[in-house]
UniProtKB/TrEMBL annotation:
<dbReference type="InterPro" id="IPR004480">
    <property type="entry name" value="Monothiol_GRX-rel"/>
</dbReference>
<feature type="domain" description="Glutaredoxin">
    <location>
        <begin position="18"/>
        <end position="82"/>
    </location>
</feature>
<keyword id="KW-0676">Redox-active center</keyword>
<dbReference type="InterPro" id="IPR002109">
    <property type="entry name" value="Glutaredoxin"/>
</dbReference>
<comment type="similarity">
    <text>Belongs to the glutaredoxin family. Monothiol subfamily.</text>
</comment>
<keyword id="KW-0479">Metal-binding</keyword>
<dbReference type="InterPro" id="IPR033658">
    <property type="entry name" value="GRX_PICOT-like"/>
</dbReference>
<dbReference type="InterPro" id="IPR036249">
    <property type="entry name" value="Thioredoxin-like_sf"/>
</dbReference>
<keyword id="KW-0408">Iron</keyword>
<dbReference type="Pfam" id="PF00462">
    <property type="entry name" value="Glutaredoxin"/>
</dbReference>
<protein>
    <recommendedName>
        <fullName>Glutaredoxin</fullName>
    </recommendedName>
</protein>
<keyword id="KW-0411">Iron-sulfur</keyword>
<dbReference type="InterPro" id="IPR014434">
    <property type="entry name" value="Monothiol_GRX"/>
</dbReference>
<keyword id="KW-0001">2Fe-2S</keyword>
């Protein structure tokens, strides 16, 4: 496990209040789970950052070790792992995700 890659992952998570590690990009998701995560995040109405793990194989290999979460997408809000596509969808349907995203973006802007 490369220390440089782990540091890069840590900085990405710290520097982006809402960060989605996904396959592809929001405009061109490369799997159904990433596509669903993007749709749900977009519906929250706030900006979010993303990392295409297909374009960054070293992150794709090391992020599951860093996060102790084996699959993609991975949503990080306020430096904390929220989870994958199913969890994101469930939180959105309950109305919790919108608040989490808004709060994280608001505190980053403050």
């Amino acid at each position: 496990m490369s220390e440089d890659v782990m540091e890069q992952i840590r900085q990405q998570i710290e520097n982006n209040p809402v960060l989605l590690f996904m396959k592809g990009s929001p405009r061109l998701p490369q799997c159904g789970f990433s596509s669903r995560a993007v749709q749900v995040l977009a519906a929250c109405g706030e900006k979010f950052a993303y990392v295409d793990v297909l374009a960054h194989p070293e992150i794709r290999v090391n992020l599951p070790k860093y996060a102790n979460w084996p699959t993609f997408p991975q949503l990080w809000i306020g430096g904390e792992l929220v989870g994958g596509s199913d969890i994101i969808s469930d939180l959105y349907e309950k109305g919790d995700l919108q608040k989490m995203v808004k709060d994280a973006v608001g505190s980053a802007d403050a």
